Amino acid sequence: TGEVKCLLRYIPDECGTRVSNRSGRRYRKLDFNEAYEFLRQHRPLYVGDVHHVPERDIKEVLRPEAWLPTVVETDDRVARIYELLRSRSYIPADKIGITGSFLCGLNTPHSDIDLVIYGLENFNRAREVVASAKEEGIIRDIDDDTWRQIYRKRNPELSYEEFIKHEKRKNNRGMIDDTYFDILYSRDWTELALLDPMDYEPGQRMGYLQIKAEVKDASFSFDNPAIYRIEHPEIDKVLSFTHTYVGQAQEGEWIEARGMVEKTTHETRLVVGTTREAKGEWIRCLSTRT
């Protein structure tokens, strides 16, 4: 297409609080709305549904798996999580990466650690390692204060108690010392080749709907968008474009979902996360094992 979709996160600023550990240059972190406003003023052609950067304007691509070894050498916490995952799950080194502020060298001592795992099998093994390491006390479960911070940040259409019940069984977050970390899923090249473009075909919006349905396939429920194939007389699948509702339910469980109905040439889907805040939209698991 000649463009790369992305989101602006940091801009050079002499008064910025983030100092690059690679160049020494100061940067300022922008929130979602600030980023759009900045680009409207300085690069209006970049602004679309997300940000669109022409390939000719890209100077460097930071690859999570390529930069992880460098970060491991300089941060003991990252090194310990990396070694835990590698030694217990046997995930190939090139299938683990680091993203977020650590990837671009703008992390602070208080920054969260965001790891990305390539490939569904690898990701599920990593989740098993996180679960067992918590039981053994190698890493800590998230404390209540941190959970409440996450809840306030996400601001979901679930009560705090509901939110916690869903999150704790996902096994994709934890604490190393006093630092919060999470593991994110990304399709590997093999899984990307299996993508069906029709799954992502924009549909005609038909209005909001709330449904209850049984999940028939949750294999890609940690993907972006999260995909839940369901048994329902009107809706073929539920898609979530907000991270709050990834991994929310498993195959065979019943869910309640509210979102925007989209009709395409081949299916009818329910989309959760049609806005950044996803107000009035949710996915909750109704099965007792949450």
Strand proportion, as a percent range, falls in 25-35%
Distance between the termini: 42 Å
Characterize the overall form: globular
CATH topology of the largest domain: Beta Polymerase, domain 2
Notable characteristics:
290 residues, alpha+beta, Beta Polymerase, domain 2, OB fold (Dihydrolipoamide Acetyltransferase, E2P), 3 domains, 5-stranded mixed barrel, 4-stranded mixed beta sheet, 15 strands, 28% strand
What features would you describe in this structure?
The chain is of the alpha+beta class and 290 residues long. The chain has 3 domains: 3-57, no CATH class; 64-190, Beta Polymerase, domain 2, CATH 3.30.460; 196-285, Nucleic acid-binding proteins (OB fold (Dihydrolipoamide Acetyltransferase, E2P)). Helices cover 27% and strands 28% of the residues. The chain has 7 helices and 15 strands. A hairpin with a 6-residue loop joins strand 3 (18-19) and strand 4 (26-29). The radius of gyration is 20 Å and the shape is globular. The model has no long low-confidence stretch (mean pLDDT 95).
Describe the SSE topology.
Elements: E1 3-6, E2 10-12, E3 18-19, E4 26-29, H1 32-42, E5 51-54, H2 64-74, H3 76-89, E6 96-99, E7 113-118, H4 120-135, H5 144-154, H6 160-168, E8 173-176, E9 179-186, H7 189-193, E10 204-217, E11 226-231, E12 237-240, E13 254-263, E14 268-272, E15 282-285
Parallel strand pairs: 7-9, 12-14
Antiparallel strand pairs: 1-5, 2-4, 3-4, 6-7, 8-9, 10-11, 10-13, 11-12, 13-14, 13-15
